[in-house]
Amino acid sequence: MKPIDVGLLGIGTVGSGTWDVLRRNASEIERRAGRGIRISMVADKDTKKALGIVKKQARVVADGFALVRDKNIDIVVELVGGYTVAKDLVLEAIRNGKHVVTANKALLATHGNEIFKAAQKKGVMVAFEASVAGGIPIIKALREGLAANRIEWIAGIINGTSNFILSEMRDKGASFGDALRNAQRHGYAEADPTFDIEGVDAAHKLTILSALAFGIPMQFPKAYTEGVSQLTQDDIRYAEQLGYRIKLLGITKRTAKGIELRVHPTLIPTKRLIANVEGVMNAILVKGDAVGPTMYYGAGAGSQPTASAVVADLVDITRLITSDPEHRVPHLAFQPDRLARDPILPIGEVETSYYLRMLVKDQPGVLADVTRILADSRISIGAMVQKEPAAGQSRVDIVMLTHKAIEKNVNAAMAQIEKLTTVLGKVTRIRLEELL
Ligand code: HSE
Q1: CA end-to-end span of the chain, whole Å?
Q2: What CATH number should be reported for the domain holding residue 395?
Q3: What lines the ligand 1 site, CB under 6 Å?
């Protein structure tokens, strides 16, 4: 049978990895897919660079639209990134009856509903394993492996750059800036690194996971997003002393009131496996009602790990290309006409535990005032540490861990605590999850 012809949009880090993996493992991949899979056309603005990689083994053009309209191409791999040109290219590929593979989490989280609708109408597949957690087959696990389950929650380390920064800050006392520069040097960070450090990249990925887990549309604008840029060495150290580690987690949870969709630094018990995921590695915990907690671990970024997911999608599409569209795995795991309407909860309605740190004057009654405010707001304290004041100092840090509370009640209590004349500055609040 004629090999499947793939057109590659963009031959940067992931594109060149895809080129390498497809060629290196060509015969193994053909045995798996039942047909050869070859990249026969590449579109990249930098045609010289592209030619340097593909030599004369594929046609190279500068214009992506020429590629998505080319009659010889069966599958388009979109590795352009961003929302604008990438969106136009993907929609044009679909209009031209091409199947699409994309690693573009930002595009899917923001325009996925429109893209899947167009694909559905045209009867083509849009595969996106590489969009979340690089090489970890988490999309496959959620859509297929866990299909028996009612998913209860997902909690994941899904931004390698932030995790790398937190590891470096904790282990080496590195500054935030040095750690970020180091991650950028390794090619892990997004083109705009604020997406990594402010939690946006993780929220894009979490939006996709949440849709697949609960059978809901993509709702990125409703995700709560907070990154690692405000974390201090003090908080990292205090958390360790209390038996917790701070990780940037993406958490999505089904509750009686609606669905939680939130990315923020989180204290998690040091003894949990996921607390020990270091550097740029990713890990995702999925709790299903039948299977219980399951964890998926691996490289979340990088050339060949991400190419691993792209090529797996190419194999999947090659196997399914002749099947009826209605017999394929639905894009969002559930049948498109059966998506649920559960609301996404605003962050104020979320219920979790909290780490609170405040700097107070070391004098009688301060603690009593703080704990009274918490008690009046029905917030119960689970643990508390007061540090010895440094020599000659009359100010001291108090750290408290609360039991579960509704976030808006915690916010109201924090505002009252900050008004006490004995409390200096703002209260630092970090959410805490036991992940049981
Ligand atoms: N910037 C991302 C990360 C890369 O740091 O995890 C892969 O999405």
Answers
A1: 50
A2: 3.30.70.260
A3: 134, 159-161, 188-190, 196, 201, 300-301
